[in-house]
Amino acid sequence: MASAPRLKIDGGIPTQPGQVIEAATALEHNGYDGGWTAEHSHDPFLPLLLAAEHTSRLELGTNIAVAFARSPMIVANIGWDLQTYSQGRFNLGLGTQIRPHIEKRFSMPWSHPAPRMREFVAALQAIWSAWRDGTRLRFEGDFYTHKIMTPMFTPEPQPYGVPKVFLAAVGTAMSELCGEVADGHLGHPMVSLRYLTEVTMPALLRGVARSGRDRGDFEVLAEVMVATGENDAELAAAIVAARKQIAFYGSTPAYRKVLDLHGWGDLQTELRRLSLAGEWDTMGSLIDDEILSAFAVVGPVDDIASGLRARCAGVVDRVQPIFFAASRDCVNAALKAFRR
């Protein structure tokens, strides 16, 4: 009988340019399968050029880049170049962000996020098709239009194919869309195993089926919070940090649906109230052990690899652990079972 596919292990790549090379090479040396950047205070794409130059095997991706802060043409061009330079190792991970950030931070239009994201991905594929296959670019949608592509603006051919597109999704509508139009799903840390299996995966599979593909054609990544330490004091500090992070996520209305599934919806209201008052420490104290264990793998270093497998194996294809207050040596020790 064929064995189940191996659970891939991914790590984060910092976006500060001076830290990228050391972090990316360490991930590859320690047997990680992939390294991902996130769009916070620095550009998420630029670091991956450095990472590609200094690694040879590691998959590289954005988790996430904000789609609606850019046009499909800009993203298509960046994705093509990173795919070429990395020799086929680039995964394009996109997310919507939320309306206030799109309109007030990026000064870009916001409307109908799921239909807009569907069209964004379709526009990417149309542009890449024009470059790869020489098809005429005639993309006209409700949100994006791309109808000019001359030889001067067409990048050189490359043999690696187009990047895989991953979409971040929590709600059912975006998850179904992800399963239908993307190559993979990027999960959020504020998703419990129960929510993943009862809500996210069924929605993804409905989308995959609608696209005419099989589950094996689609990759699912879970981000999982981890609280561990090499001694009791480090573990205790990590647990406090994890409680605060869960409380921060829980204060956001977008994740109330996750708490509702567990019967913890009223907690979101209280966390929201406390966040507006700046009561961050108090918020963390409301995350009891049951809630903590629903969203994080907690325990001594030697228990973390098995805990991650128990949470993810057979459900998702790859996991990106998020450690709190842990040294690099601690992280490496906790994940040694995943090394090649």
Automatic annotation (TrEMBL):
NCBIfam families from the UniProt entry: F420_MSMEG_2256
CDD domains the UniProt entry points to: Tetrahydromethanopterin_reductase (cd01097)
EC number, UniProt record: 1.-.-.-
Name of the protein this chain belongs to: TIGR03617 family F420-dependent LLM class oxidoreductase
InterPro entries documented for this protein: F420-G6PD/mer, Lucif-like_OxRdtase_MSMEG_2256, Luciferase-like_dom, Luciferase-like_sf
Record GO terms (molecular function): oxidoreductase activity, acting on paired donors, with incorporation or reduction of molecular oxygen
Record-linked SUPFAM superfamilies: Bacterial luciferase-like
Organism, scientific name: Mycobacterium spongiae
Keywords per UniProt: Oxidoreductase
All copies of domain Luciferase-like, residue ranges: 16-313
